[in-house]
Specification:
Helices cover 97% and strands 0% of the residues. It has 168 residues and is an all-alpha fold.
């Protein structure tokens, strides 16, 4: 379609030149004026076509700039999304590490408590063994003392009997 206005402009220019030449030869100022108007029309049409082409070029450039800006915004959005995903993964890893640390600490404390409990149970068992040994020793000593007391009673009874016999 760009060819039609150019052809029309060229035709108007040629027609204008022809009318100007004819008007000049025929000394017809109206024809000369009509020729100048055709030439002006051709020049104005050419200027309009040039302006239209320039406007089309600027529109394309504006579309390109807009597309580049959209791409830049999309790249920024993707970068922000990637950063958010990375941060989320980092937070998840930190959470897992913290949970593992808490679990290790709890296991360490539980093991320490179990060791302490076992030590207390061994101490109680040792005390029970010592107490049983002390009880047996005390029972032996008590039996020995009872035996000695029995011997002393028997000796006293024998002395009483001997004293009674000697008084009689």
């Amino acid at each position: 379609m760009a060819d039609a206005p150019e052809a029309s402009g060229f035709k108007d220019k040629v027609l204008g030149k022809a009318k100007q030449a004819a008007g000049s030869v025929l000394n017809n100022t109206e024809l000369e004026q009509e020729g100048r108007l055709h030439e002006e029309k051709a020049e104005t049409a050419k200027e309009a076509a040039d302006l239209e082409a320039r406007a089309e070029q600027e529109r394309r450039e504006a579309e390109l700039v807009a597309a580049e800006k959209e791409n830049a915004v999309e790249r920024q959005e993707l970068a922000a999304e990637q950063a958010a995903v990375t941060r989320e993964a980092q937070l998840e890893q930190e959470r897992r590490q913290a949970e593992a640390a808490v679990e290790r600490d709890a296991a360490r404390k539980e093991a320490a408590l179990e060791q302490q409990e076992e030590a207390q149970q061994r101490a109680v068992a040792g005390e029970a063994v010592r107490a049983a040994a002390e009880k047996q020793e005390a029972e032996r000593e008590a039996a020995a003392i009872e035996d000695e007391a029995e011997r002393a009673r028997q000796a006293a009874a024998a002395l009483d009997e001997a004293a009674s016999r000697s008084q009689s």
